[in-house]
Amino acid sequence: MFYCRQEGIFKVKHSLATSELTTTRGPRFLEDHPDVVEFTNTSGVVIPCRADGQPPPIVQWMIGNRNVVRKGKLQEVSSDGSLVFKPFHANDYLSDVHSAKYKCMVTNVAGTIRSKDIRVRAVIVRHFEVQVYNEYVIRGNSAVLKCHVPSHVRDIVTVTSWIQDESKYSVLPTGSLLIRDVTEKDERKVYRCQVYNRLTSESKVSSKSGRIILTDVHSPISPRLIHSLQTVQGQKGEVLSLPCVAQGNPAPYYQWYRLHGRDKIPLFPGYRFIQHSELLVLEHLSLEDNGTYVCVANNSVGKVEAQTIVFVSAPFKVDLHPHVLTANFGDLVTFGCSVSPTTNTARTLIWFKDGHPLSANTRIMILDKGILNIHSVQREDKGMYQCMVTSDRVSSQDTAELVVREQHPRFHFTFESTVVQPGSTISMKCSASGIPLPQITWTRDGVMVPEVYLTRIGDYVSNRNTVNSYVNISSVSGSDGGIYSCTAENIVGRVTYSARLDVYGPPYIRPMDNITVLAGRSATVQCPFSGFPLKEVFWEKDEKRLPYNHRQRPFPNGTFILEDIQHQDFGWYACGATDGQGRKARQELWINVATPPVVEPLKVSNYLSEGERASVMCVVSAGDLPISIHWKKDGMSLPSDLEASVVMANNYTSILSFPVVRHEHRGNYSCVASNPVASNNFTAALDVKVPPKWKHKPVHQASVVGHKVVFNCQAEGFPSPVARWKKVIGNDGEFRVVISNANIQILENGSLVIQEATPEDSGSYMCQLTNGVGSGLSTVIDLSVHVAVHTEQKFKVYTVKEGDSVTLECRARGENPIEVTWMMDQVPFDPTSSPRYIFKETIEPEGKVSTIKIISISREESGLFVCDVENDYGKDETGFQVVVQERPDPPKDLKVKDKSSRTVSIIWASPFNGNSPITKYLLEIKSADDFWNRDSDVIAMEAFRTEYTIQGLLPSSAYKVRMRANNNLGSSDYSDVITVTTDDEPPGERPREVTVSARGSRSIYVTWKQPHQKEKRFNIVGYYVGYRVQHDDPTLPFKTVEIRNHQTHECEIGNLKSSTKYEVIVQAFNEEGAGPTSMPVIVETFEYDPPRAPTLQILSTTSSSIHLTWDKPENENPVDEYSLYHKEEISEWKQIKLPGNIQSHVFHDLRCGRKYEFYMEAQNSAGRGRPSEVITITTDGSAPQAPDKHRLLAVNATSVTVHLSVWRRGGCPLLYFSVQYKPLESTEWILLSNNILPEQTSLTIPDLTPATWYTLLITSSNEAGNTEEEYVFATLTLSG
Q1: If you average pLDDT over residues 349-367, what whole number do you get?
Q2: Are 515 and 592 in contact, with CB atoms under 8 Å apart?
């Protein structure tokens, strides 16, 4: 501190100035505070709050709006400002202590700052178990094994390991294990998970292990979603995995998209986006990755879609600038609060001043984008400002200090003590600065300097922001002397400078006003003397020089101090002055001693409760009368609505009464006592303890498992009521304290929140509200947690052999009534529609069981059965994929793909496998004209084949092929038979038994047999017959005759030379080429030719003879003999030889009316000529002709006579008759005779029934044929 002392002539201290050298600095946190602090009841926790500033700040912790006690049973504030939570027993858990929001307040002279809200949560250590359940999965699909953790520790444990990670395995964000492409190898393993409790540092391995249960499905199944996440949160820069696991048959494939508005934009793998089928991995997360991602699982049957919303948060920094801002009064100041990095993430910004939320007004404007404007800065604006930004459970803040520039006034120029002559001119000046600019006032001997005719007072402000003030006296007189003081004052403080002005001349004392002083206090009186030089200045009372006691202190400079004033100190006081010449001056003043009011402390009850009566007595124990007494509340006059009664008991006693105290009566009450000289007061706090009153009374609620439940329980009162929640646990009906955990929290406002209701949460709850006033409030409410219907198993596969039985059990859990409906392949299914279905429903305490037993199951029941369950609180479903296994279908579309002479390649389409993998194919092949039997060639092939090449076949051979498919249940029926003929090869053998004979002088006749094909099969299209004149030169070529008919094994070669030897060979050929030639055969042509074929003609015929004639060949070749061949139509040929010189011949004894055939050959020494054409000739005559019925029959009542002689013979003699008859309606014939000679001209059929219709059948025969005729007749009646 600086002390500025100005002394005048008398060396008396006249002024005191003070200026601060020490620089203040507002508080600032040295480290950021966590958003959440969790600890266990066995460990406790320490939350530091470190800050610096000048002077060092004071730390105070607050919970809500109340201070945390420095020393408490459950918590305390340590000497370094840390908040310490002590370990505690579970029974000592208090939700308003152990599950609440805290803030740290740090204060020094510059202002106050506060930390962000710190969420404190204590966790009661309890035993828990971790379990892994079995999972069903279709072969080849992906499985998800879940690590099941109880809800009360779910958010404080982390799955740390399953098994060694490989590409086949992935641990999902939820801790579940993803197993890709499940096989039998995975089924044989046992899986356990291990979790880590981050609060207790305890690791725990699941007590129950899980297995993969593999199911084989061979019918198509549309994908079904088994695991995905609706929302996923990640931090910028981290790696985030989005799971989307579905099952189906065939195993689904996955496509990933990102939603842009309503459009799905495909995601392509890149350096940050990696697609592992059902897992999308986002590496190096950025804020741009926020959004909705869509996974589509497809297979050939259908598709399913899942959406996941990704929230990416990033650590952000809040910068409040400037950190220190110094402003002048009236300035406009601006603070800017910026957050980096900038994102589109929703953030909340709140301004604080000195730890309290800052409200806008006409001067303080809170603008968008983090701008704070303060217009016309005032002194109260100085302090600590904070910008608090909150985003997604994360908050950050920065601090700034506003320094309002202010300065204690200080003098830059002052006047000096001086002595002047009367009549002279003098100017006294004081210059002072300060912030804000001070005002300067002038006094003389403690009295304002009067501005009269010769005295002027003025001031102005210089460029240096300094106020200059002066007193000018144009003609000094003796009365102008005295102590002049200039006082510079602003809102920061004041400073006074004093100096003496003396005027040469005799002593002079200005008149003084009477004064009243207060008993018990001190008083200072300045003697307003003048004149120079003076010998002395003194004070007297009752003509006695002062002092005459220890309380009287006169000073040579004319100052008189009276201390600890007593009543007897009143009276006349005089100030006198003398000079060396004996001149004197004297002035008196009357000092009146008055007693100020003395208000005794108010006695206020500390135990007032709302509804009681109250009175406060104010006694003024001392003070001059008259005394007036009035009351104030919180510095203001008593409001009328308090219904207060004020009664004066006497002249110095006032009683304030309230007939009924209420909450509104709380406050600071002041008794103000006044008399003519002074006022005094005493203030006391009146606390009205108000018992709790319901503000929000909880009511009974009903909820559904998994839903959120909120019980609002709030009350008003003083002190603020504290809520305690209890719940009936056990059968004793006793309420026990509800302990917060991850699922159940008690909020600061007293509300009870159950995040996900479970059946165990049902029961009676009690909310108790107490504040130490009265018995408090309590109410018991019931929570009914209804169980929405759900199925225990979402999907199961049944593999059943055809003809066996299967039972589908749909076990619905939830509150009855539960309605169950069945679907099959998305079509309503009536389980009572077939006698093969046995349908049963059973109601159980936990729900309902619906079962369908299918007896003798068939392929038609292979499909997806869905059990839909529904109650009043929800719906669910279970899928049963029923796979009926049977023998496979035959291979389809069997056809020839390719062939050669020795091989055939066939292809086929895989058939329906009977829902059991095909183990092999069996192919059978046989020669096309053979029968299928057990000796067929059977070829076994692998199940994956759809093509096979059959080896070792014979060329140009027809084969038939069929196939069967095998699975574990047996063989299929045979496929359709296909027939295939192998390609040809050139004939592999030479023709056999080649014979060559001369046919004449110019032709030869060649015959042969086809080549043997026992080992080699080949097709023969024709033959080449080669010939050449026998010669010694074997190189001469053969002339070739081509015969394109594989069934022709002979040929005649003409245009040869007579009497010449020829060499003949035969060679078979086909489209592929020619085979080997036969061995050469030698033949010699004749000298001349055999005769040509004669031409036969009919000369005449009779019923028994035919006369033939022919022409005789007329050429150089003679005829030596004829061979005439003849036969009846269906008989064998007979030969007769005739001499070469005849030209006709008659055949006798032939049969009447019959056809005969004839041809002839002529021959000579050269050989037999070609046969003539065959002619057919019929002898005369025809079959018998039937007569008219009337000519044939003579009918009476009992017989009929048949006249056989009327039959016409047809030119040929009759041989015999056959006669049969029967009644018209009968089916059986009666044979009368079948050999009646023609010599018998008539016959009679006796014993007929009168008046009856009959049928008569007669057959007549001769050599030309038979004639059969039926006759219908009726016998006569007996009467004719």
Answers
A1: 91
A2: yes
Instruction: Report how far apart, in Å, the C-alpha atoms of 1061 and of each of 333, 996, 1000, 1039, 1164 are.
Output: 142, 11, 12, 15, 21
Report the first-to-last Cα separation within the chain, whole angstroms: 181
The CATH architecture to which 598-686 belongs is Sandwich (2.60)
Say if pTM beats, i.e. exceeds, 0.70.
no
Tell which CATH architecture fits domain 1189-1274.
Sandwich (2.60)
Two structure tokens written together for 1110: 């022919």
Query: CA 336, CA 749: separation in Å to the nearest integer?
Result: 34
- Alpha carbon distance 414, 530 (integer Å): 21
Strand 874-885 to 892-899 pairing: unpaired
Q: How is domain 1096-1178 classified at the architecture level of CATH?
A: Sandwich (2.60)
pLDDT, tens digit, 9 for 90 and up, residues 99-133: 888 999 999 998 999 999 999 988 888 878 888 87
Q: Tokens standing for 355?
A: 């730890």
Helix (H, G, I), strand (E, B) or coil at 375: coil
Closest CA to 211 of 136, 160, 130: 136
User: What tokens appear for 1114 in the block?
Assistant: 């007329």
One-letter amino acid at 980 equals V
The answer to whether domain 130-216 has CATH 3.40.50.720 is no
Tokens 């809500």 sit at which residue? 64
Confidence category of residue 497, pLDDT binned at 50, 70, 90: very high
b/e string for 259-281 if b means 16 or more Cβ within 10 A?
A: eeeeebeebeeeeebebebbbbe
Query: For residue 1038, what pLDDT band results from cuts at 50, 70 and 90?
Result: low
Give the CA radius of gyration of the chain: 69
Q: What is the number of other CB atoms lying within 10 angstroms of the CB of residue 907?
A: 15
DSSP secondary structure string for all residues of 55-110: SPPEEEEEETTEEPPSB-SSEEE-TTS-EEEPP--GGG--HHHHEEEEEEEEEETT
- 992-1084 sits in which CATH class? mainly beta
Q: Is the bond into 55 cis (omega within 30 degrees of 0)?
A: yes
pLDDT value for 18: 36
Q: Selecting from 3.10.20.30, 1.10.760.10, 2.60.40.2100, 2.60.40.10, what CATH number does the domain 31-123 have?
A: 2.60.40.10
Q: Give the count of alpha carbons within 13 A of 681, CB side only.
A: 13
Average pLDDT, the chain: 88
Cβ pair 1096, 1112 in contact under 8 A: no
> 199: closest CA among 725, 754, 742?
742
- What b/e string do you get for 639-666 counting C-beta neighbours within 10 Å, with b at 16 or more? eeeeebeeeeeeebbbebebeebeeebb
Amino acid present at 534? L
The pLDDT > 90 percentage for the chain reads 50
Q: For domain 892-981, say whether CATH 2.60.40.10 is its number.
A: yes
Cβ-count burial 715-742 (b if 16+ within 10 Å, e if not): bebbeebbbbbbbbeeeeeebebbbbbb
Query: Contact at 8 Å (CB) between 366 and 358?
Result: yes
Q: What is 504-592's CATH number? A: 2.60.40.10
Which whole number is the average pLDDT over 132-142? 78
Sheet holding 1050-1053, edge to edge: 992-998, 1004-1009, 1050-1053
pLDDT band at residue 165, thresholds of 50, 70 and 90?
Answer: very low
> Does position 750 have pLDDT exceeding 70, yes or no?
yes
Query: Lowest mean pLDDT: which of 114-118, 343-347, 610-614?
Result: 343-347
Q: Which two tokens stand for residue 76?
A: 């305390």
| Spans of all domains in the chain | 31-123, 130-216, 317-404, 412-502, 504-592, 598-686, 691-784, 790-885, 892-981, 992-1084, 1096-1178, 1189-1274
